[in-house]
């Protein structure tokens, strides 16, 4: 089962693209280290305080895939400098 999550996020304290990318790199590297998922910034590359993150997990069951994706989203929510605004799931 392939699960894809697209989450649009706001980074309120970013004053430049460099600050935004520093926050994103810290979050994405932590997600990659802790969970069996792939993660990338997929939209709003040139906007300081907004980003869209894509997360993909592939496992043998929908339950396991959903758990991995939810764990990654919970980790994003644990960072005070970023707020998840819109989140959508897709299943293949």
TrEMBL record:
SUPFAM superfamilies: Hypothetical protein TT1725 (SSF103007)
Top-level taxon: Bacteria
InterPro entries assigned: DUF503, TT1725-like_sf
Name listed for the protein in its UniProt record: DUF503 domain-containing protein
Organism classification: Bacteria, Bacillati, Bacillota, Bacilli, Bacillales
């Amino acid at each position: 089962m392939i699960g894809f999550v697209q989450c649009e996020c706001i980074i309120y304290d970013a004053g430049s693209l460099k600050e935004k990318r520093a926050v994103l790199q810290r979050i994405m590297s932590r997600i990659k280290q802790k969970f069996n998922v792939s993660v990338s910034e997929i939209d709003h590359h040139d906007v300081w305080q907004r980003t869209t993150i894509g997360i993909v997990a592939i496992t043998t069951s929908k339950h396991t895939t959903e758990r991995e994706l939810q764990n990654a989203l919970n980790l994003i929510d644990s960072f005070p400098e970023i707020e998840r605004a819109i989140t959508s799931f897709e299943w293949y």
